[in-house]
Amino acid sequence: MFDQAIDLIIKSKNILVFTGAGISTKSGILDFRSENGLYKFISKNYDLPYPEAIFDISYFKKNPKPFFSIAEKMLEQHAEPTKCHKLISWLEENKQISLVVTQNIDMLHHSAGSKKVLECHGSFMTAHCLECKSAFSLNDYKQSVLDGLIPYCDCGGIIKPDITFFGERLPASFYGLLNDPPETDLVLILGTSLNVQPAAGFAVEMAGKVPSILVNMQSTPYDDTMTLVYNEDLEEFAEHVQNKLVTKT
Ligand code: CNA
Q1: Which residue has its alpha carbon closest to ligand 1 atom 38?
Q2: Taking a C-beta distance cutoff of 8 angstroms, is the pair 65, 225 a contact?
Q3: Where are the beta strands (DSSP E) in 113-172?
Q4: C-alpha to C-alpha distance for 13 and 230, rounded to whole angstroms
Q5: What percent of the chain has pLDDT over 90?
Q6: Ligand 1 centre and the CA of 216: distance in Å?
Q7: How many CA atoms lie within 13 A of 124 on its CB side?
Q8: In what order do the strands lie in the sheet with 159-163?
Q9: Is any ligand 1 atom within 6 A of the Cβ of residue 19?
Q10: Which structural domains are found in the chain, ordered by start?
Q11: What's the average model confidence in pLDDT over 60-71?
């Protein structure tokens, strides 16, 4: 079923990979917008004005508890990378990856061994005090979160993980990427509804310049603009591609 995609991947030397929450659902991490995703979970279990408020910077400043409750669940999860994360890392070892741009905050590309990763919505690895801007590492604040507490700086400000919330600017590295994208001969978009801007816009624009493959369970507003689209499970895709590549390369 994935033969055309496999042919494109085999002949590409500079693949730009763009990933979203769908690549990590098989690791047990909920995505946002699937039928049983995080937004549904939040609507049922949290008293919020709207589910996205959990990642909204103005709401967080007034009430950081719901975010840290979700962060506690994510940090205690010890999630393992999926076959698809491993496929991307394998392609990098095979010198076929120009860059992995991920919207995910779960650090699973690193766990899978990928080195060329740009986390365009940040991650839990670092954090800053909202008041005095002091920098912290995950180890500095992780235990407080796991204990169900809100982490505070000595100055009294809340320590906020460097994850981009709605209403915040993306990391400088993302704007550097917009100005100077890597050499790319194939765009591989995996597990994203392409709903969150400006990250999705970057992927769609790059996909318009070279051959592109989109693998996502649900259809997206940009399916018609891609060279190949598979509304399939990413683990199945990764298994097929990995098996074929191992025998053909
Ligand atoms: P989204 O809008 O929830 O879309 C995810 C897409 O993945 C959906 O369209 C699903 O159909 C699809 N999907 C889910 N499971 C699979 C699967 N096994 N195979 C194929 N497709 C699948 O999430 P986006 O990533 O598009 O939205 C960007 C947000 C989500 C970013 O800001 C992230 O920080 C945020 N997010 C990240 C994580 C994480 O780090 N793992 C988890 C939840 C949300």
Answers
A1: 21
A2: no
A3: 117-119, 122-129, 135-137, 159-163
A4: 22
A5: 92
A6: 9
A7: 21
A8: 135-137, 122-129, 159-163
A9: no
A10: 3-27+81-121+170-248 (3.40.50.1220), 38-76+127-163 (3.30.1600.10)
A11: 95
> Where does the pLDDT of residue 247 fall: very low under 50, low under 70, confident under 90, or very high at 90 and above?
confident
Cα separation, 242 vs 92, whole angstroms: 13
CA 150 to chain centre: 24
Residue 170 gets which letter from DSSP?
P
Encode 123-151: b = buried (16+ Cβ within 10 Å), e = exposed: bbeebbbbeeeeebebeebbeebeeeeeb
33 within ligand 1 shell (Cβ under 6 A): yes
> What are the backbone angles phi and psi of residue 221, rounded to the nearest 5°?
-65, -10
**Hey, what amino acid is at 85?**
H
pLDDT tens readout for residues 153-203: 999 999 999 999 999 999 999 999 999 999 999 999 999 999 999 999 999
- Give me ligand 1 centre to Cα 121, in Å: 13
Distances from the Cα of 102 to the Cα of 79, 137, 179, angstroms: 17, 20, 17
Query: For residues 160 and 150, what is the distance between their CA atoms, to the nearest angstrom?
Result: 9
Residue 3 Cα to ligand 1 middle (Å):
25
Residue at token pair 């995910």: 104
Known catalytic membership, residue 110: no
